[in-house]
């Protein structure tokens, strides 16, 4: 492997152009990811790779922040999309594909007796909270300290731009993995609390990801039941990468609702909320809709995606791959005198260099990216089924050179 | 034209199946539209038509509640989608297509100096409010009494299922076309008010639609300016059917931001917020994002849609068509001893039978639908460029028979 690094001239030129017509040039989470030496725009993508505007190829360890679980441009998914799109997209009555997808989710996901659809993970989390309030007649929400459930005002910190205090007036916070603190909160506010919302494990930014401690979820669900508080799993990020029946199944607990998004349609815009029969009537009463929610082809793409994931037994394949990738990277680090910590579920690994400054860690990531492995310094990564053994070799080679250039 | 009516047996069977896995069977605005004798699911669509599961053809006067502005499955739009999709959908870095679409909107829309993107109209309206709060440092919103800006909790009535009082604590309401009431509200709360949000004309459900009175918008924008309140036009529904530069241009006023959705990509899920340079920095500070927001092909479809709309001078064609349709339907009604009132912009006509009960009006609509014209009793309709002279003849024939069967 030659020790050459990428140039990103065309990306930079396009970013300059972008800044004229888009606030910040690139907005949202993509903006935070911009690095001087990194790619800003893609020209094409296929399987585990994308190419930037300068035609540099990247082994993509971000997978579009999750959606690409089968790999980019998966033939079965794209074919299912096309067959559905030829019939119609957003039409004045619903598509039967919506029913077929709901049936598929009900069949596949352990706790699911029904499904509703939106476009983005945040649609599902906001809807879940509304249903919890309707069902319980209570107002307050408990969430994990820096748990992320979308950008809706109730979810953002009070001091964030555009957010006002009343937006999260009824949002309480608790530390991850701290069932005692949760119990205290429930003792104090239980009669006001509609739901506890959390990802199945803690995957914050800029911090090691953290799995549930033994017995945590069992205790949480028992406490929630005791205080008549609904349990909502935000599986938008981890969904389909831990267990196809719902990530909760891997941790042996049963929530009342699960939010899905990201990987559900392998990159086609779709989100879903599923829940138990107890909540079906409340879910029917809540008014939640959007013109674009009924676009049929992403739902057809979702059915194809879920079928492919089942066929491949995707979560175990992805987790095995992640384990191998983690140990290979840890070994490379160790060989070069560094200590790389992998955390979270191996199919969504978060990396951190232990015992060096965060700047050194960032520099290492930058050097990997410049050598064709797309990674982020502050965010968990994502594995797809398209990632190959050869890709691990390539990643390893780039990582090694990156260490050598610190 | 034979006086035969459609059977919807297969739609009904599918609805039964749907109720097992989706709360209510069909959710959101599609659920309200369900009529015993009407279609529930589509099997295909093309141009101005969709076919239901029983293979009945409908001349579609709802256009998917707006998206289908060029007609279903428009070849140029679908081709642009495909070219973009072949390159990649939601990828780990942004698509240059996003920049191209922002440039297109900035070039086309009068007040637009920048654009941001979401999936659904409600993303754009919520973002607009957040930006207004960030820019002004003020909290309160003024909206029109029953103006609809999506299902976000701040937008829903306090007594709606799943909604809590604090959700709309800072939302004030004013009557449409009542600039004096607005002035009083501004006098009282001006120092707390961040924005005034309204559609360019009043298009509520279950009520005649109403254009702005002479001088209304001029007065509104002057008042807002005086009290340092931003003006947000929710053009999600009317956008591109009145004036491609923004519906405000037709009414000779300039808002600070405009929300687009529905028709922007002819049925592909996309929404956009555009605004003036003054707000660009505030827009950059507000954190607003979503994994599925960056799906590139709907943006490519939007560029193609906007180009086609410009080529066709779409708004004037649609308005002319609507005028003709309205007068033909009014004539048929009159011939049969009824008084049909058309209101709103002719490219989005709202119909009401005057001097009869609402039940009779509903029955007339049902009879039209049973004869192959898809209409709603309580909602404005939508015209697309695919609607032809022959379609008017067909609609007229069905409407005539519908009157004869009241």
In terms of topology, how is this protein built?
2 copies of one chain form a homodimer.
Chain A: H1 9-21, H2 28-32, E1 42-46, E2 49-52, E3 57-60, H3 75-87, H4 96-108, E4 114-118, H5 121-136, E5 140-144, E6 171-174, H6 179-189, E7 193-198, H7 216-226, E8 230-234, H8 247-250, E9 257-260, E10 271-275, H9 280-285, H10 297-312, H11 314-335, E11 339-343, E12 350-354, H12 358-369, E13 373-374, H13 389-404
Helix pairs in contact in A: 3-10, 4-10, 6-7, 11-13, 12-13
Description:
The first copy, chain A, is an alpha/beta fold and 406 residues long. Chain A folds into 2 domains: 9-72 and 314-404, Aspartate Aminotransferase, domain 1; 75-312, Type I PLP-dependent aspartate aminotransferase-like (Major domain) (Aspartate Aminotransferase, domain 2), CATH 3.40.640. Chain A is built from 13 helices and 13 strands. The first copy, chain A, has helices at 9-21, 28-32, 75-87, 96-108, 121-136, 179-189, 216-226, 247-250, 280-285, 297-312, 314-335, 358-369, 389-404, and strands at 42-46, 49-52, 57-60, 114-118, 140-144, 171-174, 193-198, 230-234, 257-260, 271-275, 339-343, 350-354, 373-374. In chain A, the strands form 3 sheets. Chain A has a 7-stranded mixed beta sheet, with helices on both faces. Chain A has a 4-stranded mixed beta sheet with strand order 1-2-3-13. In chain A, strands 11-12 form a two-stranded antiparallel ribbon. The longest helix of chain A has 22 residues, at 314-335. Chain A is globular and about 60 Å long. The relative contact order of chain A is 0.17. The model of chain A has no long low-confidence stretch (mean pLDDT 97). At the A-B interface, α1, α2, β1, α3 and α4 of A face α1, α2, β1, α3 and α4 of B.
């Amino acid at each position: 492997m030659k020790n050459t690094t990428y140039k990103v001239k065309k990306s930079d030129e396009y970013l300059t152009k972008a800044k004229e017509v888009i606030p910040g040039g690139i907005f949202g989470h993509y903006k935070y990811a911009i690095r001087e030496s990194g790619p800003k725009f893609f020209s094409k993508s296929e399987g585990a790779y994308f190419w930037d505007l300068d035609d540099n190829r990247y082994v993509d360890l971000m997978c579009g922040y999750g959606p690409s679980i089968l790999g980019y441009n998966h033939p079965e998914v794209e074919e299912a999309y096309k067959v559905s799109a030829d019939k119609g997209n957003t039409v004045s009555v619903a598509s039967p594909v919506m029913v077929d997808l709901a049936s598929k989710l009900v069949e596949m996901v352990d706790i699911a007796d029904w499904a509703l659809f939106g476009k983005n993970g945040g649609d599902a989390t906001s809807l879940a909270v509304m249903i919890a309030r309707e069902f319980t007649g209570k107002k307050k929400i408990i969430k994990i300290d820096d748990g992320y459930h979308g950008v809706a005002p109730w979810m953002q910190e009070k001091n964030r731009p555009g957010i006002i205090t009343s937006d999260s007036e009824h949002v309480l916070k608790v530390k991850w993995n701290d069932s005692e603190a949760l119990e205290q909160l429930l003792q104090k506010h239980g009669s006001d609390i509609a739901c506890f919302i959390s990802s199945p494990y803690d995957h914050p930014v800029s911090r090691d990801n953290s799995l549930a401690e033994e017995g945590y979820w069992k205790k949480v669900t028992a406490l929630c039941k005791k205080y008549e508080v609904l349990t909502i799993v935000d599986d938008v990020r981890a969904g389909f990468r831990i267990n196809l029946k719902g990530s909760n199944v891997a941790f042996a607990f049963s929530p009342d609702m699960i939010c899905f998004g990201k990987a559900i349609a392998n990159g086609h815009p779709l989100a879903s909320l599923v829940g138990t029969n107890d909540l079906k009537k409340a879910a029917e009463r809540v008014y939640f809709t959007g013109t674009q929610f009924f676009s049929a082809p992403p739902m057809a793409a979702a059915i194809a995606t879920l079928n492919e994931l089942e066929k491949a037994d995707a979560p175990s394949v992805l987790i095995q791959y992640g384990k191998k990738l983690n140990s290979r990277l840890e070994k490379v680090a160790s060989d070069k005198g560094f200590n790389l910590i992998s955390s979270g579920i191996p199919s969504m690994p978060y990396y951190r260099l232990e015992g060096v400054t965060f700047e050194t860690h960032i520099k290492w990531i930058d050097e990997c990216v410049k050598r064709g492995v797309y990674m982020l310094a502050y965010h968990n990564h994502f594995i797809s089924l398209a990632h190959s053994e050869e890709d691990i070799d390539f990643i390893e080679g780039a990582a090694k050179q990156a260490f050598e250039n610190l």
